[in-house]
Design the sequence.
């Protein structure tokens, strides 16, 4: 007999004992998860390499806590979670290699702890497959060692949803509500709006089931992680509604937008697809994206037949609400946006894969095992190829910023200094300068501010070669550095034209 999502699952004693840790087996059962976490950590360092320079968003987050570079402009959609996450290293060291290693180790530990929460809901073998699937995605490998928020929203989602279900099935587990608080707080700490979307099904279920403790845990976690963002909204943006409106403007105006095709285009290794034009990646690269929901639904069907629908339906629901805003409310895409959805979908997908290789009998078992093995091997090969391609392309772009910074140094633009114009935030960081903009999403000063600054420190305006500069820089001497036109403000004691 099966049960609906609101009823407690029924399982036989033998299967329940296999999935619930107990006694001296606890440590032994957790070893495969620890091995997976170590392999994931090492894979990040080998495939992505710790020498990869900081990207644009990483620079914004890291510069808020480092003493080696001026802080970049912090726009309305961002949250301080990543800055606090990197502070233990970035606050005293400017070594990118050390920061990458720290984040890779931390991300491996985060994956281990998140999967441990699910022990007792699924057998360890299912959790290992789920973790391996999520960890092997190129987007997970690429962003695990980066100072970016989305991977940590995924970890928080796994912790919050798993702990929620654990406490639902065993109310005597006193530590699980606190794990719900921790997971929800981690999500809200990193991206408050994402945290709300992920936890919507949990809030509804806790209210329907009349579980005030679970409801308080989810709400308490959201408040613990989100209140600093709200306080900053009033301190720096004029209020919460003003910050939300500004965040919407920066993201192109939130509303009804079809971004499914944009997400597909980004699967080929585009860190940001805005505007998202061009051809679709090869079908081999996007195939897994279409197989993923099919396997997730199969996992739900299997769970319903086994009388444990709730354990699979809840992460599926949370994955759907996590993906919804990034598929249908913004007009651009970045593959990292869907990491929380991928992490939650990995649980039912792993259940489906185990069903395919164990349930059928006779020749079908051999056939399905072969199909699954070949499919997973091909999937891993594709993900690794895209990860390497993305890392190499990102490294080339960041090396270009570093070379431009060297050219600026040769022109006498050295700290303290100010960079404005095209890609002023990353180039300013690599040069050791502050960055400024008089318009656009990163507007933080006026033309008059820039003129006054040029009377005290070196100031450079950067444009693409042949592009028209801003009015305040039109009379400045122009130099060619890499593929840019660089106009350097005359020193205060130099006659101006």
Sequence:
């Amino acid at each position: 007999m099966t049960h609906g999502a609101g009823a407690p699952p029924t399982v036989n004693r033998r299967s329940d004992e296999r999935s619930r840790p107990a006694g001296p087996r606890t440590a032994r059962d957790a070893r495969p998860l620890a091995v997976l976490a170590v392999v994931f950590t090492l894979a990040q360092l080998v495939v992505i390499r710790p020498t990869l320079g900081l990207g644009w968003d990483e620079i914004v987050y890291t510069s808020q806590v480092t003493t080696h570079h001026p802080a970049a402009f912090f726009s309305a959609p961002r949250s301080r979670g990543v800055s606090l996450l990197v502070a233990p290293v970035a606050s005293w060291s400017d070594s990118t290699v050390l920061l990458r290693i720290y984040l890779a180790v931390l991300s491996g530990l985060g994956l281990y702890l998140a999967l441990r929460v699910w022990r007792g809901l699924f057998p360890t073998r299912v959790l290992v497959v789920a973790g391996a699937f999520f960890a092997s995605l190129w987007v997970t490998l690429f962003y695990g060692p980066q100072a970016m928020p989305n991977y940590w929203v995924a970890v928080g989602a796994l912790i919050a949803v798993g702990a929620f279900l654990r406490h639902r099935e065993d109310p005597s587990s006193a530590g699980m509500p606190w794990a719900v608080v921790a997971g929800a707080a981690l999500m809200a700490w990193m991206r408050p709006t994402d945290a709300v979307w992920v936890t919507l099904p949990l809030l509804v279920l806790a209210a329907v089931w009349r579980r005030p403790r679970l409801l308080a845990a989810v709400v308490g976690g959201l408040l613990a992680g989100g209140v600093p963002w709200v306080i900053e909204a009033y301190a720096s943006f004029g209020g919460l509604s003003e910050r939300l409106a500004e965040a919407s403007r920066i993201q192109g105006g939130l509303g009804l937008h079809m971004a499914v095709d944009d997400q597909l285009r980004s699967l080929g290794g585009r860190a940001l697809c805005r505007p998202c034009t061009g051809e679709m990646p090869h079908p081999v690269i996007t195939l897994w994206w279409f197989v993923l929901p099919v396997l997730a639904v199969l996992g739900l069907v299997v769970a319903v037949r086994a009388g444990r629908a709730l354990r699979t339906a809840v992460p599926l629901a949370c994955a759907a609400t996590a993906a919804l805003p990034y598929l249908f409310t913004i007009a651009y895409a970045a593959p990292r946006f869907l990491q929380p959805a991928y992490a939650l979908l990995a649980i039912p997908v792993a259940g489906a894969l185990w069903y395919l290789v164990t349930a059928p009998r006779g020749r079908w078992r051999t056939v399905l095992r072969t199909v699954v093995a070949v499919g997973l091997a091909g999937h891993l090969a594709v993900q690794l190829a895209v990860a390497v391609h993305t890392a190499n392309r990102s490294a080339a772009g960041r090396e270009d910023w570093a070379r431009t910074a060297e050219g600026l140094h040769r022109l006498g633009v050295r700290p303290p200094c100010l960079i404005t114009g095209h890609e002023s935030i990353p180039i300013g960081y690599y040069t050791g300068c502050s960055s400024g903009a008089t318009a656009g999403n990163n507007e933080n000063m006026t033309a008059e501010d820039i003129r006054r600054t040029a009377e005290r420190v070196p100031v450079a305006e950067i444009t693409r070669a042949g592009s028209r500069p801003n009015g305040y820089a039109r009379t400045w001497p122009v130099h060619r550095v890499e593929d840019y036109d660089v106009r350097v403000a005359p020193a205060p004691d130099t006659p101006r034209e």
Observations:
- The CA atoms of residues 468 and 474 lie 8 Å apart.
- The radius of gyration is 25 Å.
- The first strand starts at residue 418 and ends at 421.
- Strands lie at 418-421, 434-436, 459-464, 478-481, 484-488.
